[in-house]
Structures are given as structure tokens and as C-alpha cells.
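I am writing to request your help with a piece of structural work I have in hand. The matter concerns a single protein, recorded as an amino acid sequence and a row of C-alpha cells. Could you please explain, in whatever detail you think fit, how the C-alpha cells follow from the sequence? Thank you for your consideration; the sequence and its C-alpha cells are set out here:
>
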Amino acid sequence: MNAFSRPARWLALALTLVASPALAASGPPPDYILTNNAGLAFTSPDGATKIEQYMKDGGDWDVKWQAWVRRGEQMTELKPEQGFGAGFRFTSDSQWLVRMQKTGSGEQDLYLYHVEKGAFASATKKPLSNLAWAYFYGRPETKRFAKLDFHISANLMEGTEEAYRSLGMDWPNNRYLVISLSGEYDNHPKNVAMKGLGGWRCRYDLETGKFDVPAMFAKANADALKWEIRR
């Protein structure tokens, strides 16, 4: 046997072990602390998945949050890191997860995740809220709707777990999400206290990745386009 064969094999094995993903540390960095706020902890309907949120306070208002999925001994971070804690909602089959992410005062984005190879991963290349806003501004009746200035928020309507039967829907389970869009303008008439978009709804199909507006949303959506509060 070549005198260098055995050391070379051991070196190759050592390098393989170091590079092995299975041995990589899983979990938040040590300077991120698990929040004790029970309102920021979530469990999937099947009980197999828990959402844990960790915070790092760097001082001078430099606060960062990470959300992690725990499935047994495995932990996976739900990207991206944010400046606030978030709310989460699962579909009833525990295969889809929506993150309701506060981004500022009265403002919120949505992120969509799906179970892939036993772990939750991003289901869309862009935030789900970005896709919803693009759909809103791409429709014939809304493409000339003025851009909103503040309190811009995409909200996931309650009812995901029961296919929105509480809204009177008869949809298949684990198929649709109902998203509500809202926001306000800086400039409006003096006799108006607030003006903007007041909860315009659309539906997202988890199976096809497409948006639509069911007929029953039409009247409320027309009113949402004219939303204002007079002084």
C-alpha cells in the first residue's frame, strides 16, 4: 500500500465530515433570544410544526427578528429577517404557511411558504403581498388607481383553516387564500380626514399560483376604491 494512501483517505474523510450539511449547526445565532410572548408562538394543525421567533436588540432601535420552524429536531429559518415579530397562519393540512409581517405603523407584507422535502421553504420568488399589489394595479378598473402613500397593508383574511366557510364560501379545503389590500393618501380634500383604499379583496389559488376576484367580492371592492372618512 502506498505510504500516503491512509493519511490521504483520513484527510478526505475529515473534509467530507466538515462539509456535510447534516453536521451543520441548525438554529438561530446565540445572540438571538427566543421571545416569551405567547402571541408570537404558533403550532400547525397537525401539531408537527412549531414557529419560534427570536429577537436581537442591538441598541439604538436596531432590533432584528428571525422566525424559525421547528419540526422534531430540525430547525429551518423562514427568510427574510425582519425588524418586527410576525403572525402566522397555516392551511388545515399543515402544508402551507402564510407570514403576516408588520413592516411599520399600520403597514404589513405577506410571505408564503410550502413544505418541500420535509421543510418549509419560500413558495414564491417575491413576497405574496408584492404579487397581490401587482395584480391589483394590473386590473382594468384599478390600473389608474393612484399610488398609496402610507399605511400600505396586505392582510390575510381569517378563515384559511376552514376554507373561508365563515364568509359563506363553498371552496375546496387548502386551496385558496383571501387577501385584503388597503392604504391611504397624503393629499386629499380638506373636508376628508382619511382617503385611500379600504380593504379591496382578491383570492389566491395555491394550486395554480394565480389571483382572481370572485363575483361576490365585486360590490365591496367597488366601495373599497372610493373609501374615505369625512370630517
Q: What stands out?
A: The chain has two domains: 26-123, 126-231.
